[in-house]
Amino acid sequence: MLTFALGDMTVTEICDIRSFDIPLAIIFPRSDHQKLHRYLHWLEPSFLNHGNVRLAVRSWLLKRKGRNILVDSCVGNHKKRPARSDWHERKDTSWMEALASTGLKPEDIHIVFCTHLHADHVGWNTKLENGRWVPTFPNARYITGRTEYAHWEAEIAASEQIVGHGCFEDSVLPVMESGQMDLVTDGFQLADGLVLKSSAGHTPGHMSIDANCEGHTGVFCGDVLHSPIQMVQPDWSSAFCFDQKLARQARITLLDSLCDTSRLLIPMHFGNTGSCYVKRHEDVFMPVFSDSD
Hints:
Helix content is 22%, strand content 32%. It has a single domain (3-289), classed as Ribonuclease Z/Hydroxyacylglutathione hydrolase-like (Metallo-beta-lactamase, Chain A). By secondary structure, it is of the alpha+beta class. It has helices at 24-27, 40-43, 94-101, 119-122, 146-158, 167-178, 229-232, 244-258; strands at residues 3-6, 9-23, 48-49, 52-64, 67-71, 111-113, 126-129, 132-135, 141-145, 181-184, 189-191, 194-198, 207-213, 216-220, 264-266, 276-281, 284-289.
């Protein structure tokens, strides 16, 4: 289990799916494998495996000043996701076991922040109890972007089909109905030293966390990047991005802001690693993986 310190804040990975592969051409429709040839010596096999992009699905648990904050909540259990067999009606204990290994129970979580409302970022928001979806973290405030919530609410109202694997209905709306969800905007302070910043593109209301803990800084970037491949090819937005042009802009802006600094990039899906620094090498961005990984 990955863990590292950001100043006086402890950051721990709570992993739901350790590794899964998606064909390069499927996740990055504009990709060209030949353009990665120069980087295969470090991309393979951790991030690129026989032409497949290797990803993980994780949450981050932040512990600071007596507060326990969960960033994104992965896929979850018992959710009906027929379009994704590996997500469909799961009965996996590893995520809860990982949380327990940190000494915490669901009741101990103070804040759940969802960078955006895709099915692999909200799943553990709720659990099935007596046939009803109820908040998994009974004492937590759930935080997400106001723009993000409004987008999915409107999408569902306008469609007769299942939207977003049905995750809004089973993993978001029950939390709102419980009175535990707060909708926020750019600049909201999640906790001391943790400020939310708009990073729209992957979804209309995607938000990242700009962290500054005793002068140690980093960005929990959600799905602004899915893979280190997008550091050497930042033009490649994922097939899952709502606005590929805006997603590209958000990604390049983020990488520029981190490049050649001591600020950590802390993504959600990078396979086999939790964080890295960003350096300029010739004409591309390159990851420098921290010692803790």
